[in-house]
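User: Show me a protein chain along with its predicted structure.
Assistant: Here is one chain, sequence first, then C-alpha cells.
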Amino acid sequence: MCYSRRLTFISILSLFFVLSCVNQKISISSNNDSRKYFEDLSFIRESENVSNSTNDENIVDKKNNLGIDIELDSILKIIKSEVDEEIFTDGYTIQIYLGDKREEAENTVEKLFEYDSLIKSNTIFTQPNYRVKTGTFEDRFKANFEFKKLKKAFPNAIIIPEKIKIN
C-alpha cells in the first residue's frame, strides 16, 4: 500500500515537472493597448524659429523671454564683483574689551575716542559677549607698537590674530 502511494506521488510530481518545462508560446500583438493614449501639447509650447545662424543675441532673446534670466545674471555679476574685490590676509587686531555688558562696551568706545579721536573701533556682538576691537595690522611688530600705547589706558587689551580685509 505504501509502495503504490509513493509511485503515485512520484508520477504526479514528474508530470508536474514535465508540464512546467514545456515551452510556452509568447503572444505578440501588434496593437499595444498601453500606447493608444496621445495628447497634442503643441498649442501650449512656444514655437521656436529655427535658424541656421548661431548668433548669441538670438540665443539670449530665447532665454530671456520671461526676464528672469536677465535679473538673475545681473545679480550674479554683482555678487561676483563684490567677492572679487574683497581680499583677506592674516593679520592682527587689538581687543580692548570683552564682556557681556553693552553699556561697558559703549563706555570703552567713548574712552577710546577720548584717548585718541583718530583711532577707529569696531564693536562686535557674539552672543553673549561684546567685543571692542581696534586697528588692523599686517604684522605683529606694528600691532605690538600700538598695543604698548593702548595697554596703559586699557589694561585688559590683548593682541588677537585675525583675518583682515585688504582694500
